[in-house]
Write a structure and sequence with these properties.
mainly alpha, 2 domains, rod-shaped
């Protein structure tokens, strides 16, 4: 029996994704940063930063959930997650500039330590004490490091999602493939049933000949309609 193509692909499980765990650190860290270093009222930057951080995390989750039926939606939402992360990084860079704080260069020893630590620590529990105790300059630079790593991972995720889309297509294509496969399977079962009903070898051959003639007739009809004959 032929395998019928799956219409709904495996999906969900986003909480186990490393990139989702990192996006959770981005969100929680941003909430703490804004609480500690930005005014609680009268500054729209707080809402913008928290919303951007939340949007990154939420779009990863929604994209994962949507991937079973729509790879297009998954790719779109993952791109949105990455775009909002870029927006958030701009906010952290602006904060450093406005407050005359240093952005760590790539070869700065502190930046190197931050990159190594961020690669190995992907849960908020690894960062909570740091964000509650370190000064603004340190935390803004740490967040830039985490955001850059998360953005890189989202870029790789988008590449995999695009490859999956090329392989599996959209839900309409999979539905068409499933219907085609099911019809072919029903046709094969019908032929087998007719042949299996033969009582003698002569009857079997006669039935087989009838089936071959039917197939030739159908093929000729299709060829005429398409102008191939």
């Amino acid at each position: 029996m032929a395998d019928v193509p799956k219409i709904v692909l495996p999906h969900g499980g986003y909480k186990k994704l490393l990139v989702y765990r990192k996006s959770d650190v981005v969100y929680e860290g941003t909430v703490v940063f804004c609480r500690r270093f930005l005014p609680p009222r009268g500054d729209r930057t707080v809402d913008q930063m928290v919303q951007a951080a939340r949007s990154c995390k939420q779009n990863i989750a929604e994209g994962s959930s949507a991937s079973g039926t729509s790879k297009e939606t998954e790719i779109k939402l993952t791109n949105v997650a990455r775009a909002t992360l870029d927006e958030l990084m701009e906010d952290y860079l602006d904060y450093l500039k406005r407050n005359n704080l240093a952005e760590w260069s790539a070869d700065d020893q502190r930046a190197s330590f931050a990159r190594d630590y961020a690669k190995k620590h992907n849960d908020w529990s690894d960062w909570q004490e740091i964000f509650e105790t370190r000064p603004a300059e340190t935390l803004a630079n740490l967040m830039l490091t985490i955001c850059n790593q998360t953005s890189y991972m989202l870029g790789r995720m988008i590449e995999r999602q695009e490859a999956d889309f090329k392989k599996f297509g959209g839900v309409r294509e999979r539905m068409h493939a499933a219907r085609t496969s099911a019809r072919a399977e029903d046709f094969s079962r019908g032929i087998y049933s007719r042949l299996a009903g033969a009582a003698t070898s002569e009857e079997l051959e006669k039935t087989a000949e009838l089936i071959r003639n039917e197939i030739d007739r159908i093929s000729a009809s299709i060829a005429r309609k398409r102008g191939w004959r």
